[in-house]
Structure formats: C-alpha cells, structure tokens
Write a structure and sequence with these properties.
Elements (H helix, E strand, L loop, with lengths): L12 H13 L5 H20 L5 E11 L5 H11 L4 E8 L4 E11 H12 L4 E10 L5
Antiparallel strand pairs: 1-3, 1-4, 2-3
Length: 140
C-alpha cells in the first residue's frame, strides 16, 4: 500500500458546495475518497488519450437499440464476431418489447477498444452507446 500524503486545496465556496453535493449524491465516505476517484478517472483518460496504441485497457460498452430494426442485430453480431479477440463477454437484456440493452465487457489496446466502440455506436439504429475504460494497472 502506498503512503498517504495530505495536501490542501483552495476552492471557491460555491465550488466546494457543489463538490460536497457530488460527494453526498455519490455516497462517498469522505471528500478524499471522491477526490481519489476523480483523479484516477482523469489519469486513466489522460493515459488513454496520450498513448492509446500502447495502453492496455479493460472496459464496458453499453448499447441500447431497437431489435426490431431490420438487419440491426445481424450487423451488430457481424461486427462483434470480427472483433471477438477484444470481447470477453456480453450480456443482453430485453428492456421492453422493442428495446434491448447489451453490455460488452472488453479487454485489449485502448485504441482498438475505442475503434470497436465507435463502429458499434455508429451503426444505424443504436439509440445509445457509452464506452467506459479502465487501464489495466488500475484493475485489482
């Protein structure tokens, strides 16, 4: 375990009030926990942005789509099969008669994960697509 270092931060009163609201809504035990999480997220984003071709990552891609749209499920399946080396697992949930939610668990080079996510999200008929990445060293 690393050594804990204390430091102080100066903030405007209204920013601190908004941050305290963020801490309460996020159910963080302390401000320090919230700051640690925000810092980790920012550092992961920075690492992935600066060196996506060299950054091993894991993540999730969440898609929401209408499975009745002609050809959409076949297209999604075809794309996923082409990138099966990046897909660890998928979960498919029927939200209602038309809408499906699919979560793909991904692992590989960050740039390749982003490319896969862009291809799937850009497929006609996708209503929502969100990629969340974590760099491998941050995964316990």
């Amino acid at each position: 375990m690393s050594d804990i270092v204390r430091f102080s931060v100066s903030l405007e009163a209204d920013l601190l009030e908004r941050f305290d609201h963020h801490c309460t809504e996020g159910k963080f035990a302390t401000r320090s926990e919230a700051i640690r999480q925000l810092l980790r997220e920012a550092l992961v984003d920075e690492a992935v942005s600066e060196h996506p071709e060299a950054t091993e990552a894991a993540g999730t891609l969440t898609l929401v789509y209408d499975h009745h749209r002609p050809g959409l499920t076949e297209k999604l399946t075809e794309i996923q099969h082409r990138h099966n080396h990046l897909i660890v697992s998928t979960t498919h949930v029927h939200l209602d008669h038309h809408l499906c939610l699919e979560v793909l668990i991904l692992r590989g080079r960050a740039d390749k994960l982003r490319e896969l996510a862009a291809e799937l999200r850009g497929t006609k008929g996708i209503r929502k697509g969100q990629l969340v990445l974590a760099t491998t060293p941050d995964i316990p």
